[in-house]
Amino acid sequence: MGEDIRKINIKQADAYLEMIRRPVGIRRTEEMVYEKLRACINLRFGIPGETEDDFRRLAVISIKRRDLSEQGLPEAVLEKRIHQYDCHQTSLVTQMKVLFVMYVEQKLDIRLEDDEVTATEDLKTFSGLVFRALIKKE
After folding, report:
1. How high is the pLDDT of residue 91?
2. What is the domain partition of the chain in residue ranges?
3. Global pTM value
4. CA–CA dist 34, 40 (Å, integer)
5. Using one digit for the tens of pLDDT, what is the confidence trace for 83-136?
6. How many CB atoms are located within 10 Å of the residue 32 CB?
């Protein structure tokens, strides 16, 4: 059942990005891009309805919610996993942000500057980068 929900979430997230890429009946604005990206990241991270804007906090909420529901891990173990680094010295939280950014770039057929994305800590700022990249592309 969990796998079915993930597949549905991915399809819905793809649909939100398609609404950004090809808006029908509405004008693409920075606020519209933000709203669609908000829905998209919540679905991709498995945290529908979440209102947090900070990438790091969104990733932590996602990790905790997923691990608590699937494995029932204690809080201390979750905290250790969140702060653990892989062989590239990258945390799980950073990996989630990078993968989300790459997903958005691919689906919207845009390229964001690495330095700008790295400096971006919240979804609102990221939405502005995406909006400007789409305007540039047109």
Report:
1. 78
2. 2-137
3. 0.85
4. 10
5. 665 555 567 788 899 999 999 999 999 999 999 999 999 999 999 999 999 999
6. 16
